[in-house]
Specification:
about 350 residues; elongated; single chain
């Protein structure tokens, strides 16, 4: 799950509110979520996201109210190993403990050294396909600060003077290149720790075809943090009325679209046009530069015929989806998205 992106969207939606943001910064043993998982607690006690299966959220909401009132962050430790109710965790018996950092945050937060709010700029970087790393001080009074951000296109944002940037940005660059989601760093000659976090854009999913069987896939893909681009020549089908969860609806023939819009190498492609010739054209176009994932609806023999006289490449998934005996559009959508999640999480 792309918790960081979901958090940004919720902050933007409720931009008039101040939130308490809770982040798991360390896990000892096993727990429901991994380090880097996030959730928001609103001023009205509303909860967005989850850090556990319901064991911690009530207590987190209590501490969140304190954080919002005092504007001071807190670090909480929950022991989940016990099987009785004498220690916190409601006897979860999960054989682990987690450390949670709770801090105030708001959409319109402005850095001391910049005139514009920082979070809309971070969102813009993510929507442009950039990864963004942030650094914030934990363990001291920083309730009014904004993190320092470094994007992989070189953009620097946030609460830091030139000297602080000079000291921290090299570490942020290394963290961004490492692929880690979260890291706690203790700088030399410093009392407080630095929390490095990774903000990633949503994965791009290109879906060719806008039939009724595509509707549940688009809904599910959007809910699972994919940026969905739908391509189909039928304007009566390829629109936001039929597919409100799609991010882009492009009423064009795939042949015309692909001539001027190369598919990025890190993206996912689903081919569901129900047209043999159209599927063949799309696949032939992708042969020279395959994306990260390509799935084709229909029996394997049909897909093999699309490549004749050549053999079907091993990077093509056909039939698309995990083998769960799915039947009907809703079940097939679960099968398809389960395979995409398997591929995404493996990466």
């Amino acid at each position: 799950m792309n918790d960081a992106y979901r958090i940004l969207k919720k902050m933007k939606e409720k931009k008039e509110q101040t939130f308490a943001q809770a982040t798991i910064v360390h896990v000892d043993g096993s727990a429901y979520r991994h380090a880097g998982a996030k959730m928001l607690i609103g001023e009205d006690d509303s909860l967005y996201g989850t850090l556990s299966a319901g064991c911690l959220e009530e207590d987190l909401a209590y501490h969140a109210r304190e954080v919002l009132q005092t504007r001071q962050p807190q670090t909480l430790i929950y022991h989940l190993k016990a099987e009785d109710d004498l220690s916190w965790g409601q006897g979860a018996g999960c054989n682990g403990s987690i450390q949670v950092y709770v801090e105030p945050c708001e959409w319109e937060a402005r850095p001391r050294f910049q005139d514009e709010p920082v979070w809309p700029q971070v969102e813009s970087l993510l929507d442009s396909g950039n990864k963004v790393a942030s650094a914030k001080i934990i363990g001291e009074d920083n309730g009014h600060s904004v993190p320092l951000f470094y994007a992989d296109n070189g953009t620097v944002l946030g609460d830091a003077d030139q000297e602080t940037r000079r000291r921290i940005i090299p570490g942020l660059k290394r963290f961004l290149q490492s692929g880690q989601k979260l890291q706690v760093v203790k700088p030399a000659h410093a009392d407080a720790d630095l929390l490095f976090e990774l903000y990633e854009p949503r994965e791009q999913l290109y879906l060719f075809g806008a039939g009724p069987d595509v509707e549940p896939i688009v809904r599910l893909a959007s809910s699972l943090d994919f940026y969905v681009t739908l391509i189909d020549p039928r304007s009566s089908r390829c629109n936001k009325t039929v597919f409100p969860a799609a991010d882009r609806c492009i009423p064009e023939h795939p042949e015309a679209y692909l001539q001027t819009n190369p598919i990025p190498g890190k993206s996912y492609v689903l081919i569901m046009t129900h047209s043999f010739q159209r599927d063949r054209h799309i696949l032939r176009h992708l042969l020279s530069s395959p994306p990260y994932y390509v799935g084709v609806l229909g029996p394997r023999r049909r897909t093999e015929r699309l490549f004749l006289p050549d053999a079907m490449p091993d990077w093509v998934h056909a039939p698309v989806g995990l083998r769960i005996g799915a039947e009907g559009p809703e079940e097939i959508s679960v099968s398809v998205m389960a395979e995409l999640l398997q591929i995404r999480n493996r990466r």
